[in-house]
Amino acid sequence: MPIIRVEMFKGRTPEQKKAIARELVDGFIRGAGGGKPEAFDIIFTDVDKQDWAKGHEMMSEKYPDKT
């Protein structure tokens, strides 16, 4: 059973995550030439921007929340 791990900033709704899961599984099945959606596990990990850096730059600084 394939496991797809998705790490992204917090803030997606359950409906958005469901749509992401559908797209990932369908794309994987197309690319692999077949398979059944129920064979896949998708694990979403929501990460605070303050806990993510790219190089020397914190994502909370690069993408500050709008108030």
General description of the model:
This protein has 67 residues and is α+β, with helices and mostly antiparallel strands. The protein has one domain (3-62): Macrophage Migration Inhibitory Factor, CATH 3.30.429. Helix content is 34%, strand content 27%. The chain is built from two helices and four strands, in the order βαβββα. It has helices at residues 14-32, 59-62, and strands spanning 3-9, 41-47, 53-54, 57-58. The strands form two sheets. The protein has a two-stranded parallel sheet. A two-stranded antiparallel sheet has the order 3-4. The protein is elongated and about 40 Å long. The model has no long low-confidence stretch (mean pLDDT 94).
Overview in brief:
The chain is built from 2 helices and 4 strands; from the N terminus they run βαβββα. It is an alpha+beta fold and 67 residues long.
The total strand number stands at 4
Under CATH, the topology can be stated as: Macrophage Migration Inhibitory Factor
Radius of gyration: 15 Å
Strand order in the sheet with the most strands = 1-2
Instruction: Note poorly predicted spans.
Output: none
The main β sheet shows up as:
2 strands, parallel
- Secondary-structure class: alpha+beta
Q: What percentage of amino acids are in beta strands? A: 25-35%
Q: Which CATH-level-2 architecture?
A: 2-Layer Sandwich
Topology as a string of helices (H) and strands (E): EHEEEH
What is the C-level CATH assignment? Alpha Beta
Q: Tell me, what's the shape?
A: elongated
Q: What number of domains?
A: 1
End-to-end separation in angstroms reads 42 Å
CATH superfamily: Macrophage Migration Inhibitory Factor
The total count of helices amounts to 2
Helicity level, as a percent range? 25-40%
The whole-number mean of residue pLDDT values reads 94
